Amino acid sequence: MSLPPDVRLSVLDLAPVPSGGDVATALRNTLDLARRAERLGYHRYWLAEHHNSPGVASAATAVLIGHVAQVTERMRVGSGGIMLPNHAPIVVAEQFGTLEAFHPGRIDLGLGRAPGTDKHTAQAIRGARASLSAEDFPEQLNELLGYFEPDEQRPVHAVPAIGRKPPVWLLGSSGFSAKLAGELGLPFAFAHHIAARNTLPAVRLYRESFRPSEALREPYLMLAVAVVCAETDERARWLAGPMRLRFLSRHHGRAIPLPTPEDAAAYDYTDADRKLLDERFGSNVVGSPETVRKGLGTLVEDTGADELMLTTMVQGHADRVRSYELVALLR
Question: How much is the pTM?
Answer without folding.
Answer: 0.95
